[in-house]
Design goal:
Structural class: alpha+beta
Low-confidence stretches: 1-57, 101-113
Distance between the termini: 48 Å
CATH class of the largest domain: Mainly Beta
Radius of gyration: 25 Å
Helix content: 10-25%
């Protein structure tokens, strides 16, 4: 899917169509269920006091799929599965406070280099905004999975359940690369929450019925039905792992982070984005597959760090011309165009020009499929890669490795113009993520605290600082020492948006 003519962001309108994502009010995708409801849900049970307990979702055995063949089958209802799964879907409320203040440095040439046409005299004072999204309870202890863009930058996050209870939550894990976040209910007081089990999203097929559940436009929890329209969609978000489920279930603003479930009451995807001309549903929605969501959720539950395998090679799609020149016969796979020195792929014996055709038996049609397959496996596991080289198909089993250790990010504080900055060392893996050569040296600005001296100076997250006062910034630790010096002025060389910026500011 080409991004040409699509607008990414908050409700942008394109001449043709707009892809609505990246904000908590928009986007959730869903798909209708399959006619095997009775086998999936137990009946409501009354306790000794007579109170009716919520039905328990019990994943049913996979049955042969079929289309309705009689009026009775056509009149089947999704109501039993809806009653079972909706208590697991919550509303997510995120509050963001952005401090804004005028500063003498706004007229500084260095500031002008970075902010160009931005208005330097914006109103001062904190700006408060609230956003609405959805989430899915995935663990009975009160663990909620939602989208990163729903809670991005939030200073306060709360959820509300279908029974009217509201809870404050902690952010257990935030993963912009997958646009997922894991929340943990604060002080649940021993309560047990209804959690949805994960399905194996690799078992989904185009045409499968699914349900989308969320809170569109803040009107209240809503269920829509549809089918899986397509699988392995790319060109949807600018995230690192694009392998989306597409559905025609009606998805609207506020559905982001909501559930896409099958008729066994299992979570098959997390609703994330829509294509729209007006901001409303036009029947093209996207969800993050459950196999990716499950890995992120389990890491958030365990409290560990999310470390993904690194292959150490740049990949490119195989065009028809490339396929002909290689003798491949069909334009498919992921072509290795560059190998990181001493990276896992090079150590395993891969070469430039190899075409990866499958991972663990799953066909690789394009590089994004390869990235997805590796990202859903843990470090230390093995992967069976089938590849094409010199007119022959070969197999190689590799052990998945973690990326080179960049060390912990270094936070700059104290009486320095760089206070409020957090930086990390650029390793070959970081360089690959940034689209830079493997031998790139410097430090990456990973975050800038709003209202800090670094923010006032104009630094932004994503800047690559190459040198300070003529000294190369080889790693985060050496940058920290340089940044805490007190020269009369700073000569800064950095890279932003593909261009090199040189500026000088007072010390």
């Amino acid at each position: 899917m080409s991004k040409q003519g699509w607008i990414f962001g908050l409700g942008g309108i394109a001449v043709g169509a707009a892809l609505v994502l990246g904000y908590s009010e928009f986007a959730s995708r869903g798909e209708p269920p399959r006619p095997t409801v009775a086998a999936a849900v137990s009946e409501p049970v009354a306790d000794q006091a007579g109170a009716v307990q919520s039905p328990v979702v019990q994943p049913a055995a996979i049955e042969t799929k079929s289309v309705p063949t009689s009026r009775t089958e056509v009149q089947m209802s999704f109501a039993p599965i809806v009653k079972a799964v909706t208590p697991s879907v919550v509303n997510v409320y995120a509050t963001t406070i952005s401090p804004q203040a005028t500063s003498p440095v706004l007229s500084d040439p260095f500031f002008q280099q970075f902010f160009g046409g931005d208005n330097p005299f914006a109103p001062s004072g904190p700006q408060k905004s609230q956003s609405l999204g959805s989430g899915v309870i995935v663990d009975a202890s009160g663990v909620v999975l939602t989208n990163h863009h729903v809670i991005e930058g939030a200073t306060d996050i709360r959820i509300s359940t279908t029974d009217g209870h509201e809870y404050a939550v902690d952010l257990a894990l935030d993963d912009p690369k997958t646009d997922l976040a894991v929340l943990k209910i604060k002080d649940p007081k021993g309560a047990s929450f209804p959690a949805l089990p994960f399905a194996d999203s690799d078992q989904l097929e185009v045409g499968d019925l699914v349900l989308a559940i969320g809170d569109p436009f803040g009107v209240g929890q809503t269920v829509t039905s549809g089918i899986v329209s397509a699988l392995a969609r790319t060109g949807v978000e600018s995230s690192n792992y694009e392998f989306f489920i597409q559905t025609d279930a009606a998805i609207n603003p506020g559905n982001s982070g909501g559930a896409l479930v099958d008729l066994q009451g299992r979570l098959v995807g997390v609703n994330t984005a829509i294509v729209s001309r007006s901001g409303g549903s036009v029947g093209i929605g996207f969800a993050i597959p459950a196999n990716m969501a499950k890995l992120v959720a389990e890491t958030g539950i365990s409290g560990g760090a999310l470390v993904r395998p690194w292959f150490g090679a740049r990949l490119q799609p195989v065009t028809t011309d490339l396929a002909d020149s290689l003798g491949l016969g069909q334009a498919r796979g992921a072509l290795i165009s560059e190998l990181a020195p001493d990276g896992p792929a090079k150590q395993a014996g891969f070469q430039d020009g190899d075409v990866i055709l499958s991972v663990d038996g799953f066909a690789i049609e394009q590089p994004s499929a390869f990235d997805f397959r590796l990202a859903t496996k843990p470090v230390g596991a093995t992967a069976d890669l089938q590849f094409f080289r010199g007119g022959k198909t070969e197999d190689k089993v590799i052990t998945l490795q973690a990326p080179p250790d960049a060390g912990k990010p270094v936070a700059i504080s104290g009486n320095t113009r760089f206070a409020g900055t957090s930086v990390e060392t650029v390793t070959p893996a970081v360089a690959q993520d940034l689209g830079l050569p493997y031998d790139t040296r410097g430090v990456l600005v990973s975050s800038v605290t709003a209202g800090s001296p670094a923010d006032d100076m104009g630094l932004r997250a994503g800047d690559l600082i190459i040198s300070l006062n003529g000294t190369a910034t080889a790693d985060a630790e050496s940058f920290g020492k340089l940044a805490n010096a007190r020269p009369q002025s700073w000569r800064v060389v950095l890279q932003r948006g593909g261009r090199v910026v040189r500026a000088e500011v007072s010390g």
